[in-house]
Request: fold
Amino acid sequence: MRSAFVTELMERLKYGEELYLLTGDVGWNAFDKLREQFPKNFYNIGLAEQSMVLIAIGMALKGKEVYTYSILPFSAYRTFEQIRLACYNNAPIRAVGMGVGYDYDIGGCTHFGLEDIQAMTSLPNITVVSPADSRETTMLLRQLKGIKGPAYIRLSKNSEPELHNRHDNIKIGQALRIMDGKDVLIVTTGAITKLAIEAARRLEEDGISCEILNMHTLKPFDGDSVRKSAGGKRAIAVIEENNGGLAKLVSIELSGSYGGPNCRFISFRLPDEFNKEVGRRDWMLERVGLKADAVYNKIKLAVE
Amino acid sequence: MELQSIADSLRQEVISLHRDRQLPHIGSALSCLDVMVALYFDVMTAEDTFILSKGHAGTALYSVQHRKGLIPDNLYEGIGRNGSPLAEHTSYPEGMVKLGSLGNGLGIGVGMAMANKMDGSRGKVYVLLSDGEVQEGSTLEGLWIAGRFRLGNLVAIVDYNRWQAYDRTEDVLPLACTDKAASGYGWSAKHVMDGNDTQKMAVELGSLAAGTPNLLIAHTTLGKGLPNEDDLSTHYKPPS
Ligand SMILES: [Mg+2]
Reply:
């Protein structure tokens, strides 16, 4: 996703568009070409993330298109109040958080992105996008051009070029149905969508058909589509690389009644805790049940 | 009208407003009113931008903007009443940076000054800070960064009334953005001994160094013009 992000910015710069990338001393190697070819459009602000966002607000209020970049916690948490000010002033900054969930695995908890869905979607005026693959990243970046307020973009380190073939239907603010089915609704977001697809395919083999809604936009949240798709389902499963942000968004929409008779709600998420042990991402995700096997088993049990 | 007489009459307006609506922060408003009068009635052009980083002096700014015709009478009259879009911490008019949380104005000013440079605009950016909010690390970051980018179009004014919300500023922490420190980061910096002398402030603001960001440390009096001026109670208690 990061290379899709850089490629998209460079393409636009080549076409003569004016935009600026500010980094908090992060992205060595990834931004080298951009910096070389467009030195006036790249600023390493230094290890001063709050100021990076404040500067972006100032530039954006003067009409500039400006992206701020750091590892997710430093982009989204260190700067939370500055992003809130961007929201209050409706300054169209683009804050990019790199590395969702356990992406920085061995790196440890300071670098994990466990809470950003809750934190960022809690802010008024903001648009929050969470692409599932590289092509979604490109398309969402393009569509953000039409958004007048601030935006937060959560990027995964582990992404596929294309997880599905419905990119043409991407529209900011609208849930994207990437698989059709009548028994189970899976709601997901970000690169973990890959896991949702794997589990759904295995369930299909057992005759359990799954609809997958990919929430590439987390705010504004397309609750209408979620409610509509939930209708008549035997189970609703939420799959996320976050400590429950998406499950909460979904459950707010479904409060009251939802689904078919005896519909089950299952949340696959990261636990709300700081890990005492770390390892590679796959190992860490497996330990908390974010693995195709485990998801398949749990959903199957729920509908049987 | 002479600058000082504008400031004097606005001072009376702000005092009555705070008395009538029982608003706090009168001390902060009155200590920096004269600086804003100098900026709005003498120094700034249409291309310039003003940021009130110490957003709690909102009523002083509103009074200046109202006199300038930037805020309509009915909204100005409505300050402190239910339904007003003019919060105590600056929130109006549209196009002004809305602030109130300390330590954020300088960084936004840096971004605006950078954008003006990119555009080749002659517009300057003026940021008014409290002496307390310099303690926010983000203000110091702004000092470093503005110096590093040699933002000759950026002017910071510290309202040095030597009080912050709980104590004397120097009893909490020594002033972090001294003229020496700022010079070290590439700013031109100086003290203005009578920051409540509007004419003097206008002269100082009109004769700044070129090619570097400028810092003016304006020595002011909290609650200037009140019977209990220079007393911390003016930070909290509306005039009676
Ligand atoms: Mg003070």
